[in-house]
Amino acid sequence: MSNVFIAFQVNEDTRPIIEAILEDNPGAVANESPAMVKIDAKDRLVVKRESIESRLGRRFDLQEIHVNLISLTGHIDEDDDQFTLSWNH
Amino acid sequence: MTIDLKTVSIKPLRSTFTHVAAHIGGDKPASRYQEATLGVQSTGNYHYRPTWDPDHQIFDATRTAIRMKDWYAFKDPRQFYYGNWTMTRARQQDTMEANFEFVESRGLLSFLPEDVRRDALDLLLPLRHVAAGANMNNSSICAYGYGTGITAPCMFQAMDQLGIAQYLTRLGLLIADPDVLDEAKESWLKDAQWQELRRYVEDTFVLQDWFELFVAQNLVLDGLLFPLVYGDIVDGDFAARNGSAVAMLTAFMTEWSDETSKWVDAQVKAAVADSPENKALVSGWTNAWRDRATAALIPLAGRILGNKAQATTDEVTAQFNSRCAKLGLAL
Amino acid sequence: MDMQVKKKLGLKERYAHMTRGLDWETSYQPMDKVFPYVKYEGIKIHDWDKWEDPFRLTMDAYWKYQGEKEKKLYAIIDAFAQNNGHLGVTDARYINALKLFIQGVSPLEYMAHRGFAHVGRQFAGIGPRVACQMQAVDELRHAQTQIHTISNYNKYYNGFHNWRHWHDNVWYLSVPKSFFDDAMTAGPFEFMVAIGFSFEYVLTNLLFVPFMSGAAYNSDMSTVTFGFSAQSDEARHMTLGLEVIKFMLEQDPDNVPIVQRWIDKWFWRGTRVLSLVATMMDYMLPKRVMSWKEAWEIYAEQNGGALFNDLARYGIRPPKAFADACEAKDHLSHQLWGTLYNYGAATAIHTWMPGTEEMDWLSAKYPESFDKYYRPRFEFWAEEAKKGNRFYNKTLPMLCTTCQIPLLFTEPGDPTKICYRESDYNGDKYHFCSDHCKEIFDHEPEKYVQSWLPVHQIYQGHCFKPGTDPTAEGFDPLAAVIEYYGMNFGRDNLDFEGSEDQKNFETWRGEATRNA
Fold first, then answer.
1. What domains can be seen in chain C, in order of their start residue?
2. Of B20, B47, C228, C444, which has the highest C-beta tally within 10 A?
């Protein structure tokens, strides 16, 4: 078991993203430090477009996360609907 | 504690960095472009020689035959640094997105005459590979060139050319199915009309002198190809045949070519102005590559313009020659 | 003609057409001549198409998102300058961290720009080429946004104005410079392991994340913004680094031992360079967010651990120096800060001894080491300084031929004994700070004998201005070197206490507070 993480700048744009991630990944933990929040999860973490859209009330392109992303670890798999980080094979 | 810091008027100790001041003639306010560019590349005390090129230092002014008294005489009239480059392109991309959206939502392509559609696919899609070649060549100039003044804009140019290759790809995917991309690549690799151009591009890949590469790619090939293809053919011929929709999808290329050719001119002018030796070198390169480029473009023009091809190509070449004359080249 | 109803392409398919389809096999010029550098390192690539793209950004999306980031960033830089934001930082000592940043880090961002342009030209597959080119232009962004952010500090404080010249000449800056020169002069695959993997993936979080959080703690919003904004590109760069490693390992089993040796080497080279960051975190931030040790545990031990667990399936083990690097986390920042303090007459940053509260913080964060080995020494120096005997070491130190840090680090297992190693090569003796630096040299001595070692250069007389006569009576070598370095003696160097920066900051902030 290894942790993956994703970290974002803290601002208005990222609040719905962070909320969506925490809801879609039970067990994920948000660690806050100045101006940044780092979300850790065991083995796998998924970011879902629909969950973010339902919070934003508009279309959201997953690549928009690039604007406020700070860092991440794990292997990435992305398509139009979700963005996954994992250490699984 | 909140303090209103801006009420304090304090006198700065200096206006800019020491190396920038040396380039602009003393300590005075410098622009963002100047601070981001002038003297930014390291100039010495390199620790090791490249294992991939032991005859040179990491950055080495002798990787080209031209000589410059001041490598920062290469200036960008657009004053691009990353920030204003990418914001400019983002604005242009907004327009292009709107154009693609407009063409698609109004079904404009259904009004495109079949012959124009065919010509657009045959001519424009193989040019994806030419743009990919230009991308590689500009990355090369950025890597091996000397001085941030010329190398940084070459990286922008490399990314722009990748963008152009991708706009052409989107155009193909909008007009037809993905198969046309493979067909166009086959044509690029095998059809006689493309072979002189492909040979030109592949020969530039192995050029060792980065300034000659700059001339062959950015001055000569782009200087002839963009006016001919996007000017005379797409904006002229296609439009006259009720194919203006295509021009909406290549609007970026027209605008880009206009913008970047001014930058290219400034580089060539600076090199030529430095010494008669430079002038002779650059003139020789321009001459040789121009003749190859026109020979490579004539069959493509012929395929679309038929018996008007020679006259159109001659006109494009004549304009190119007069552009070069203004830059001080002896062709 | 009927409008066809076209299937909307998915992200992967679309990206494949937009990028991968652009390549072709050349025939008018042989591929070996078009891509001349991809074979000499011994890495075997059988199928470049097996490359997995790290992020599938096309240029249209790239411009859009990067344009947004830049707009935000420059709005903050402008506001910071207009509002004298520099007077809002915790105290003027903090500004020295930024000096070290522009002297030591920004020039590396620029080198990365050129280095990635080089590999972005040379890889024989368009997937990795384009990913590297995007990184090349991103790295230019980082260098330029850092220059623009720090430009405002340069107008009001010393220690910034000559960063370009300092990076190429000054003794402590040859540490980061030689690190990047080493990577850049290696072959394209080693460059990717050095920078893309070891530095970006394993170590870059240690530079940006805690340091930028520290800037936020110290109210430097312009630096936070460039830092985090740059870091958003790093997410792509890190992923590129990981993909490159997987790609090499999957292409041929013969690649494994070569890659392992590079990982061993570059992990160590990277941790040595980052010791400068360790001092920034532990000593130069007046308000501290976390200790170097804590950052190391999170980003190197935990994340690095997860990463190397994952790579074990290819037969890759953690870097050979991992245990030694972990042990050093208790000592690194203290030992190096002590040295910078010692040589504070020859640094373009101000140095100082931490105050009592700060020492208490260090004691709490480093219970195993600080009180026992470092606090007594630091308290002694502080006492002496108070008595007017601020100690400046004027004897030039012996440098490690590989990492170029003065021999100041201690033996593994014995923090009271300086670690010395040496090798003989072609009749000359070379000195090292550790087994790992010695091993790097021994594997490629013909490369490292070329090192431009600042101390040797000074002794050979290469670091005096033309016309200097070292035999003249009363010749002061230190003053002559500082002059050659283009530092203003007494303004750019020496202790923070009594510096022009300290006085100006106090005066200006005093005015600001009174006006309000």
1. 57-515 (1.10.620.20)
2. C228
Q: In chain B, which residue's Cα lies nearest the Cα of C63?
A: B90
ipTM: 0.97
Select from C4, A59, C61 the least CA-distant residue to B104: C4
Tens digit of each residue's pLDDT (9 = 90 or more) over C76-113: 999 989 889 999 999 999 999 999 999 999 999 999 99
Interface contact A36-C54, CB threshold 8 A: no
C225 closest CA partner among C238, C234, C214, C216: C216
Task: Choose the closest CB to B93 out of C63, C114, C451.
Answer: C63
Q: What is the CA radius of gyration of chain C?
A: 24
* Closest CB to B17 among C133, C154, C174: C154
Residue B10, domain member (yes or no): no
Beta carbons of C18 and B136 less than 8 Å apart = no
Q: Which two tokens stand for residue B181?
A: 């991309």
Task: Quote the tokens at residue B8.
Answer: 């304090």
pTM (predicted TM-score): 0.96
**Residues C269-305 pLDDT 10s:** 999 999 999 999 999 999 988 999 999 999 899 888 8
Cβ <8 Å between B83 and C74? yes
């790290």: which residue's tokens? C54
Residues 44-73 of A with CB under 8 A from C: 61, 63-64, 66-73
Q: How many domains does chain B have?
A: 1
B152 touches chain C (CB under 8 A): yes
Its domain, for residue B225, covers: 79-326
In whole angstroms, give the CA distance from residue C288 to residue A5: 23
Distances (CA, A) of C463 to C170, C460, C477, C481, C486: 9, 8, 10, 6, 11
Measured distance CA(C394)–CA(C382) in Å, rounded: 18
Domains of chain A: 3-86 (3.90.56.10)
Chains A and C touch (3+ CB pairs under 8 A): yes
